[in-house]
# Entry
Amino acid sequence: MKKFSGLLLSAVLLGGCGTAVTDSAEDANNGTGGTETTETEATETETTETTETDVEATEEAPEDAPIEVTDPTGLQLYMPELGLVKKFQVEDFELTREVLEVSGNQVLEEITFGEAATIEVTEWTESSMNMLIETSELEGERDISIEGLVPMNAPVVMIDEANSTEGEWIVTSNDETLETQAGTFEDVLVVEQVLKSESSDQVTTMTRYFAPELGFIQEKTVVANGDDKQESVVELVSYE
# Structure
């Protein structure tokens, strides 16, 4: 059973025209030739400047900047909440996931397993969950934030409702009921990944479960090689 520990750990581990004419006519009669800026021209200039400023601000905003979530829908319903601490049983060991920050649709978690610690930043959209940052270089650091961390070159897609390709994480249900040591959860999201060995008959099936407002709560791994099957489970035992 111990040979699955590494696999389990790594797995666990977004109206002035009229005014203008009148002013122009008065300017002509007074001999000014209409050289003064009219109200309409001034308004148009201000509008243009404001629009250009807004466009520049939009262009400068990084693609991975957090997006405010005011009405969670889809997969965003499964984002873990700020301050949440979850403890899991992994064989004879304990794994802890703590939410250190939530910024818009991005979540920063610290995962500890024994003396090892990993920092993860995930991005939750209506139809996907992506890994933006995953690093063990900040072990022991607590004064960290999403804004101060450097994202990976390309986000890793962890969940995508559109996935249907063999070998990808595929959503199989979003209304399961799951019993764990920490309690019974409803409306559970279930995703599954099946990996087939190219050199043998071995097939590895990993199934992950996510609960609303809690995120990840369980993973089951089944390694089948012919008639031989071995199963391991990472299960939520408590949360606060």
User: Anything to note?
Assistant: DSSP finds three helices and eleven strands in the chain.
